[in-house]
């Protein structure tokens, strides 16, 4: 009975704790109605950030999952020598904090000084500025792909291992080629995992913060005030000390992500994956 | 039989690849592609290790992927013990990160084990609803919660408090979910029933019977929380304003700001060496206990 109470209390306290935050932040110190929300929703900086992360997600998520699936499936099918070694190496960035990853990449790509721009110049490609307004989003994509492909690959690899061996064997005996096995059999069988990864990656992409915020230390002009919605939240709240406005922006962001998550959950429930 | 037989490798899917009748060289080509991506993954880490041995002038002035004289690794490491930037001391941040990560990891493991066991083994009123409630908190990301948390902290006096960092890190819905699935799968119901009939108390059953059976699950939750807290940036950035409380991530970011904007010399090597020292423990831990990480990822793949 005691244990029962304990187990009931702990999550309940957590739930209350959780709801507390959400109710408190809306009120703030003084009741101002929806004024803050109106400001946020009319802010050009906020929306430009929203569009930027949406664009970012539209490129980064398929790219990450595509590369991850490619490697997961060739490793799992045994088409590569030293597969085990590669799997370990690819997964390593999972252990690297986003801050350190961004610092490393900023140094590597620093205009004029970093090894990669130097290399491109030596190759006769001229001065490539990875921090310019045209290239900054692709640059962040490269960094995030570096950070997360290994994780996605590992999840897909484990999921591929669950595909029943007999099915593949039978298909191969019936003369199915490699392409058929991979695209027509293995890919559909891990489709639920891919959906789940797409969801996780998208939520992560919408919260993009660490990478641009560190890069702005290297090239302040490269990253604007509202480069991503989270940066907008941080800069309004901490930068200009307008906590209430920042909180309103945080709520809008949380709502957007929450709605997306609910949609994803609805899809997964329909597929009977979530109990 | 093809000459491929001399390399009897067993693919994970158990189907010998010679059955596909591939063109020769396919394996070689795909291995080369993998090696290329491996180089992409390793390049920044190699660069970090090499440049931790350089002076500031050499970081910018010499070839990025090779060593240069003078060899300054020891001096750079020594600098981590001083307040070189005026922003704080690296070793202090390392200590903070260790404290936050270890306490949160242990706390979250204990809590997840208890809550997971509760959800897995007791059928109390509203269990399903409660579990769904806990799971729904997964939907709201910590980034969006950090600022609201800060506002609450400002009210209850947890700003610039160690607990402000540790408490939210201890509550882990993912951990609870992982433990519940793990206990569902690895603790036989009959065993619990038998122990009850023999008159063992509930607490005794939990500690003596259920816990030992779930050790791998516990290690997974411990490691995942450890990594998550070690790498967390946004929450400490928002809630700490005193630099002596910073964890490594926030410390390094202030350092990078100081290194790029300040006029003081020689902050860049400290930043790079600091980055290396931040990454090494986790990579070591990860290489040693890889299968537990994989275990967590595997189970994570069935949830969200």
TrEMBL record, chain B:
Query: Which residues are listed as membrane-spanning?
Result: 28-50, 98-119, 131-154, 160-179, 205-227, 267-289
> Has the keyword Transmembrane been applied to this entry?
yes
Keywords for the protein's UniProt record, in alphabetical order: Cell membrane, Membrane, Transmembrane, Transmembrane helix, Transport
Tell me where it mainly resides.
membrane
**Per its UniProt record, what Pfam families does this chain match?**
BPD_transp_1
CDD domains reported in the protein's UniProt record: TM_PBP2
Localization, per the record, is: Cell membrane
Q: Which intervals hold domain ABC transmembrane type-1?
A: 94-289
InterPro entries in alphabetical order = MetI-like (IPR000515), MetI-like_sf (IPR035906)
Topology of this chain in the membrane? Multi-pass membrane protein
Report the sequence similarity comment from the record.
Answer: Belongs to the binding-protein-dependent transport system permease family.
Protein known as: Carbohydrate ABC transporter permease
Biological source species: Streptantibioticus parmotrematis
Recall the taxonomic lineage recorded for the source organism. Answer: Bacteria, Bacillati, Actinomycetota, Actinomycetes, Kitasatosporales
